[in-house]
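Form 7-S
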Amino acid sequence: MLKTITLCVVAGALLPGCASHPEPPMAQYRAQYRFALASPGSKFGALPPSAQNTVRAEIGMAEITDVEKVPSAGTGAMVYKIYFRNADLFPPLYVAADGSLLNPDLSVAAGAPADTFGVISGGPVSGVKLSDLPPVVAKTIHDRVPDAGIAYINKETWGDRVVYIVSFSGPARHPKLYLATDGTVLSEGPK
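Output:
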């Protein structure tokens, strides 16, 4: 008798697991998953690698809720506006395709990392580290603007001479500095 009761209890416990749930209609299933390619992760993955690196460096593991492409009014270049779940702690972040960190008015807050390559002002440009500058150029920068933070340094060839263009973190307070390889400050911009 005990064996029969135990068998009935076990069978009663297993029977509900055998019940099947009806499949949702195909139209309802498709409607539920219509935005798979517009997820925040896929939008972040579509950013240029240098922009992704800047976002990771600035916010770490904060959850991204949206990535929006915004054309820059001045140049027409694409700028990326990144929104975060905790908007109070992480306001929208503006990043250029080259990895430059931008202010909300799209001015450069911090330049792209020094290992970027591209074309600016019509001439070839390469990022340069402060430690890679000729000593007289580094000394001139320190003597002219000792309290300024350097955003980035570009090396350009103007005709037959090499020019270092130093951009600072506060461009309104410290405009770009154009230096020859001998440390001479040039007053003119690109030719």
